[in-house]
Amino acid sequence: MLGGVATGVLGGLLVSAAFSLAIPWQGVAGGSAAAFALGLGVAAARSRLPLLAVARTVDVRLGLADQLGTAVDLLERPRPPGGLAALQVARALEVGRRIDLAAACPLRVPREAVPSALAWALVALWMVLPAAHLGLGTPGVRVDPVLSREGGVLRSVGEDLASRSRAAGLPESRRAAERVSAVGRQLERSGRSRAEALALLGKVGADIRAAGASLERRVTRMLGSRRPPEGRVPSERVLQELGWADQALRTVQAVDEALSGKASSGSSRELARQLRDLGTALQRSGAPEALRRTIDRARRDLEAGSPHAASQALGESLQDLRALARMLGDMRGLEEAQRAVAGSSRHIAGAPPASADRGGREAEPSPPGPSAASRVPGPIPPALEPGEGTPPPPGPHQGSLPGQGRGGGLGTRTPRLGGTHVPVRISGSAAGGPAVVREVVGPGRVTSAVRRAGALPADVAHELDATLEQDPLPPAYRTVVERYFREASPP
Amino acid sequence: MREQVEEFRRVWGAIRHELSRVIVGHAETLDLVVTALLAGGHVLLEGVPGLGKTLLVRTLAQSLDLTFSRIQFTPDLMPADILGTNLLVQDDSGRRRFEFQPGPIFSQIVLADEINRATPKTQSALLEAMQEHAVTTAGVSRPLEEPFFVMATQNPIEMEGTYPLPEAQLDRFLFKLHVTYPGVEELKEIAERTTGTDVPTVRRVADADTVLRMQALARAVPVAGYVQEYAARVVLATHPDSPFAPDVVRRYVRYGASPRGVQALIRAGKVRALASGRLNVALEDIRSLVLPALRHRLLLTFEGEASGTGPDEILHAAMGAAEAGPLPRGA
User: Fold this and answer.
1) Residue B100 forms beta bridges with which residues?
2) What dihedral do alpha carbons A142, A143, A148, A154 form, nearest 10°?
3) Do B222 and A88 touch (CB under 8 A)?
4) Parts of chain B with a pLDDT under 70
5) Residue A287 near residue A244 (C-beta atoms within 8 A)
6) Distance from CA of A41 to the nearest CA of B (A)
7) Interatomic CA distance for residues A28 and A33, integer angstroms
C-alpha cells in the first residue's frame, strides 16, 4: 500500500517534471500526507480480521493443512466439539503453541518501497542539480528558454503599448506598459526560477489590477450610477457596454466640425436629427444624464436657429467625452497588458509541450514577434501572411481562428476568395510619423485609400464574377453583392 | 479415540504395504482404492488389459481377510447369475422347498470384471447392492455382509459389444480411476517380481471388524464449513446453469455432478485426512479428490464429446471457477 502511494506520487512528479509543469510542492506534500493517513486508516481497518480469517491465513502461510481454520470453525459452532472434533481442537491448540509468529506474520518492507525511495531520490537530485552535473536537461534548466521567450514577448508587447499610450495620452496604460516591458526584460535575463518568475508576474498583475480598479472608480464617478465590476481590470464586456462613448464622441465631433465649418456642412435639420438620434442612443445605453442634457440642449439650440449656442453646448460635451475616451483607452490598455501578463504566467506555469514542440519554441527560443502577434489582440503587429515566414500553426480552426495547434487534427479550411495576394500593407510606426495607407479594391488592384467611385475595370469585374461563381455563397448574399457593384458602377 | 486414530494409521499403512508388495507402481491408484474402501464407496477402474486391475482387487481382499468373489461380466450374464436364485431342493424326508442360492454378489469384496460387457439389465442388478448393501429377490430383501466393496473394471479401447454403464450406476461409484501404463522402472520391477521363483505372499493385516471401525472413525472426522462450501462450489461449478460455472462447463457439459459428488468428496476427504495423520479435512484433500470423485458424474454435450475435451479438463476449470470467489472467512 505504501509502495503504491509512493509510486503514485512519484508518477505525478515525473509527469510534472517531464511536461515542465510547475510542481505545487505544498499540494504534493499535503496530498502525500493525506494518502499516507488514508492508507494507515485502511490498513488499520483491514487489520481487524475475524479469527477464522487469521487462522486460515496462518494455515496457508505455514502449510498447516487447515488445522487451525477447522479448529476455529468448530469452536465457533453452537455445540461444543466432542469426540474426534475435540481431539482436533486440542491438536490444533498444540500446533498453535509451536507457531513461529515471525514466520506466520513476517514484517517485511514492501517490495516497491526500495525502488520508490530510490526513484524519489533520483527525481529530487534531477530537479535540484544543474545540468552541468548531470549532463541532462533538468526542469530548472529547461525553464530558462521559456522564461526568455515569454520575457521577449512581454517586452515587445509592453514597448508597443507604451508607444501607443504615449501617442494617445493615456497615462495609466503607459505606466502599466512600462512595467510590463521592464518585467519582460528581467525575464529575458536568465537565472530566475519558475516560481520567482511567476511571483514577479503575479506582482505586476496585481499592480495592473490596482490601476484598473482606480480607473474604474473614476469612470464610475463620471458615469454616476453605472458601476463596472470592481477589483479587477474591466472585462471586454464592460468595455463593450461603454462603447457608446466612442460613437458619441465621433458624432459630436462631426456635428461640431459641421457647425464650425471645418467639414462639409449639412442642413441644421439634418444635424439636429443626428443629435436627436444620438440622444436616443445614449438614453438606451444608459449614458450619464448630464451628457444627454447637454446634447439635448445643443439640439434644441440648433432647431431654434442658434448654431453658436449649440456649438458651445457641444464643446462641453466634447470635453466630457474626450476625458471618458481617454479613460476607456486606459482601460483597454490595462486590459491588454493584463492579458499579456496572464498569458505569460500561463505559459511559464505549464507550457504545454505539444505546442512548444510543434513551434520549436521549447528547443530554441525564437524572436518574440510572431508569438506576441498571435497572443496580443489589436492592430499592433500585422500577422504574417502564408508563404511569408513561418506558416500559421495547424489547428482545428485553421484559417478562421489563431489556433494553438493543440487540436486532434486539422479543421476544415476556411474558403478563401481566389485572388492574388498583394504584399502591401500599412507602413510606418504605429501611432507616430507619417503613414501611407493603401486600399485594395480588388484582387491585384491597389489604389489610394480615397477613391471616387468609378467604372470597375472589366478584368476585375470578370474576376469577381468568376470568384463568385466558384464560391458556395448563399443566393441572397450573392444578390446583395451583385447589386452593390451594379449601383457602385457609374451609369 | 487417540488409539483408534493410531490404529487407523497403522492399518492404513499395513494395507498399503501389502498392496505395494504385490502391485508395482500405481501408488495413487492404490491410495484411492483403499480410501474408497474405508469411505464405504465403490471404485470403477478403467484401463487397458494387463495393468493389474484384477490382481489389485484380489490382493486387497487377501490382505483384509474378507470374502472375495469375482464376476466376469459377459453379454449372456443374467441378473440371477449375480444375485442368486431360488432352487427347488428336496430334504431327507422327501419334502420339496425353495431354497435361496446366493450369487457371487454375496461377498464382501466383489470384482466386477469388464462390467461394460454385460447388458444393462444385468448391470442394473448391481444398483441395489451398491447403494443399499442389500439384494432383493423374489420379494425377499437380503442384506449383504459388511463391509461391502465393489470394484468394477472396464476396458476403454475394446468398445465393440459393450454396453456403457448407465448414468445412475456410474453415480454409485465413489471413484473412477484411470489405471495408466507403467514406466520403465516399474516394468523392470514387475519383471523382477513375477518371473522369478519368489512369489510374494500377502499377509492378512485387518479383518472386517477393523475395516468397519475404520469406516466409522472416518465418518467422525470434522469438516470446517468453508471446506464444505468449497466442495459444494466445485460441484455446482460443473452445472452449466450455475453462477459458478466457467465457460467450458456452459459449453460442453449437459448435466453436472449430482449431490453424491459432494458426499463423495467429503467422505473420501475424511479418509484422506486420517491417512495423512490429520483430524480435519483440508482444502487440499478436496482438491486432490475432485478428479477421481467427479469425472464420471459429468454428462457432456455432443459438442463436448466431439471437441475431445475430457472431464478432467472441465473439472480443472470448475475448480478454478470455484476458487475465483473468496470463501467465507468467518464472522
Assistant:
1) B86
2) 150
3) yes
4) 158, 325-331
5) yes
6) 21
7) 8
Kindly determine whether residue A84 and residue B227, on different chains, have CB atoms separated by under 8 Å. no
- ipTM score: 0.80
What is the separation, in whole angstroms, between the first and last Cα of chain A?
A: 89
Residue A213: its H or E element: helix A194-223
Of A73, A85, A88, Cβ closest to residue B225: A73
Residue B222 has its nearest CB partner, among A51, A53, A84, at A84
Asked if the C-beta of B224 comes within 8 angstroms of chain A's C-beta atoms, the answer is yes
The cell for B40 is: 464405504
Q: How far apart are CA A156 and CA A150, in angstroms?
A: 10
CB atoms within 10 A of CB A169: 12
Chain A residues touching residue B223 (CB < 8 angstroms): 70
Residue A9 and residue A1: Cα distance in Å, rounded? 12
d(CA A480, CA A486): 10
Query: Residue B330 has what pLDDT?
Result: 39
3-state secondary structure B182-200: CCHHHHHHHHHHHCCCCCC
* Cβ of residue B287 closer than 8 Å to a chain A Cβ: no
When pLDDT is cut at 50, 70 and 90, the band that residue A364 belongs to is very low
Q: Are residues B1 and A87, on separate chains, in Cβ contact within 8 Å?
A: yes
CA distance B255 to A233: 79
Q: Which residue has the cell 470434522?
A: B222
Q: Count CB pairs under 8 A between chains A and B.
A: 73
- Quick check: A69 contacting B, CB < 8 Å? yes
Average pLDDT, chain A: 71
HSE-CB of A75 using CA atoms within 13 angstroms: 15
CA–CA dist A310, A300 (Å, integer): 8
Alpha-carbon Rg of chain B, whole angstroms?
A: 21
* B224:A84 CB<8 A: no
DSSP B16-34: HHHHHHHS-S-HHHHHHHH
pLDDT digit string, tens, across residues A151-167: 888 888 888 888 877 87
CB-CB under 8 Å, A84 with B278: no
> Taking a C-beta distance cutoff of 8 angstroms, is the pair A167, A428 a contact?
no
**pTM for the predicted model, two decimal places:** 0.51
Closest-CA residue of B relative to A86 is B222
Chain B CB within 8 Å of residue A96 CB? no
Q: Which residues of B touch A84 (CB under 8 A)?
A: 1, 5, 217, 220-222, 279
